[in-house]
């Protein structure tokens, strides 16, 4: 076993931003590690100068998906019962019966959920997943790679993908320590844990408590609080362009001040175009009063739809779309992947806009890192695209309970409040972000710019 070789497992593109496009690799090399990306994404990391071993055939057992889906349902059942909280039902997706194959999967998932909804049952489900994945050619190939390369640790960048199970099981069978990073602030209440590793890396003490709450078989001493590299770029001032350069590059009017409207995916916010239009209407009113304002529209990176086209056309004199620099590598949402250039684009978007408006996004923390406010949309439009969809459902999600004070964001409770909120921030200069920054400190370890270093320090501790 090579005591300084660390495999960074990228089971999908989710981890690219945090671990390939940040200073994470650089810091590992500085500490004397041979950092190798075990890459299951469509991106070639050798183009960035990173050593990589490409995973060629990441095929899980055909039955694993059903067991994984049943595990999620059983965990949500348990959480709902244990915490007497119906919110966990909102994390379920409807079963699909669109063809024979999906119908059979749905029925099998429901049967397993019924059969194994108990603490002993969930243990058996987890055990079956491990046994199924060990039967695959994928597992055997992973084991061969590890026997040849002999890394000191396999660090997985995301706890959710099924394709991460086999590589981690292969490492564990060979006695190689394994770890995973919990990649998002809302993941744990949703029952998204798919992998099981020796160690877990989390954003904060708050997330550590969540991990112990939802997965009591995990030991406290195996959890490391490190923060997330997700926000590190906001503190790398060398990435900043001048206002003039950023405006010129993105077709913005230098005489205007811009509000960022940050879009969601169509599932999270089916009425996003209407909300964007409401913001444009409010700004148009302010401009008639003598202001010079505009909207910078940053769509959700995985939303390539045309649903905003009519609003963008109608308000082309106000709204400037500055699309995320992500690339579509396949048909599924998880094959739409970030590029290194998007880190710079997002940071400069925040630096050169006055505030952000969105529906319940973690962009509140990105803007808090720049001491700028976030306004949350908190009303339903009159003609909703989906009758049973509501903002009330969104803000009942468990992760919003971490908010220390409602004043952490500006609440837009009606479309008629948008203009007043913008006036307070942009015109009157009242943008107290104290509570937002307090929330940021709860969600993410302090100082946020040290996350990558904290992860390497924890790896050092484990390997020594």
UniProtKB/TrEMBL annotation:
SUPFAM superfamilies: UDP-Glycosyltransferase/glycogen phosphorylase. GO terms for molecular function: transferase activity. Keywords: Transferase. This is UDP-glycosyltransferase. It comes from Flavobacterium supellecticarium.
